[in-house]
Amino acid sequence: ENLFSVRMRASKNGAHEDGGKHISGGEQISTYSHLKDAVNVLLDKALTHSRGNPDFMQIQIELIDKPITKCKPLQVGTIEVESVEEGQLIARNLLEQAGVPIVCIEKAYQQMKECSGLRGAILFDIHSGKRVDDRSDKGVRVSRMDWLTTNYEKWATYNNMLVSQRVKEALVLATKVNRHPATVAELCWSDDPEYITGYVASKELGYQRITKLKTYGDEHGCRIFFVNGASDLDSYINYLENEPLFVQW
Ligand code: PML
Question: What residues does ligand 1 touch, defined as CB less than 6 Å away?
Fold first, then answer.
């Protein structure tokens, strides 16, 4: 059966490329007969975002013309912390455990402002400690991935987790990103001012949620992929943007 990639992006004060502010984005993989539902879910997400009402929205539908890889979600853990400081300290320790050198972690934090307000992620090379993608104001957007809701809900119940579209999407993304051999670790927290839980993910650590990585009201988000051996950066970015992946528990 034909599968389609359905992607949404929404912004305020015009389109992203015209300097608009990123409000929301989302991804679905859908069969032809479910396209209406997929579009609805994404439209709903764009319309009900706490960052405000978008004035630019785009939903794009594209046939996936490659075989889709299937894989299991990363293992999930949740670390409860008392404060943002504690959360951030744990995040740095996890990154180090995953193999990111301390100097590189420090450099990434110094450049953190750069990664806020982007639609996508920034790529950081662990050897040079420098940003290596060339998508300055956009970042790299990981795409063409999904997890069937029914299968995700079973997983959530088994793992004693609340069903959340947000967690599902973040875990799908982290699973895709961290599966690639060049990814050492990922650091992420939301730009949604009402959502303060973030995570560090890597192959060995899995997806480690940290309950406080910023304060309420803060609109600065972060998504950094720490990469190793980025010699073939183009094929790495192509994997993130184009290789279709289905998560199945
Ligand atoms: C986002 O919403 O932009 C990222 C959310 C990351 C954390 C999701 C979770 O609670 O596991």
Answer: 166-167, 170, 188, 190, 192, 195, 197-199, 209, 221
Secondary element (H or E) of residue 155: helix 149-158
Helix residue spans in 48-118 (DSSP H)? 84-98, 102-110
* Distance between Cα 101 and ligand 1 center (Å): 25
Q: Considering only CA atoms, which of 100, 101, 135 is closest in space to residue 121?
A: 135
Show me where the domains of the chain are located.
Answer: 3-65, 70-247
Q: What percent of the chain has pLDDT over 70?
A: 98
C-alpha to C-alpha distance for 100 and 204, rounded to whole angstroms: 13
CA of 221 to the centre of ligand 1 (A): 10
Q: Which atom of ligand 1 is nearest to the CA of 76?
A: 11
Q: What CA–CA distance (Å, rounded) separates 215 from 224?
A: 19
User: Which tokens in the block code for residue 140?
Assistant: 């790299």
What mean pLDDT is predicted for residues 154-163?
95
Exposed, middle or buried, 96 (CB in 10 Å: 0-12/13-18/19+)? middle
Place of tokens 């650091």: 187
What interhelical angle do 149-158 and 165-179 show, nearest 10? Answer: 90
Task: Tell me the pTM.
Answer: 0.93
Residue for token pair 């875990």: 171
> How confident is the model over 197-207, as pLDDT tens digits?
999 999 999 99
> What are the pLDDT digits (tens) for 82-125?
999 999 999 999 999 999 999 999 999 998 877 677 778 999 99
Token reading at 159: 């793992």
Atom 3 in ligand 1: which residue has the minimum CA distance?
190
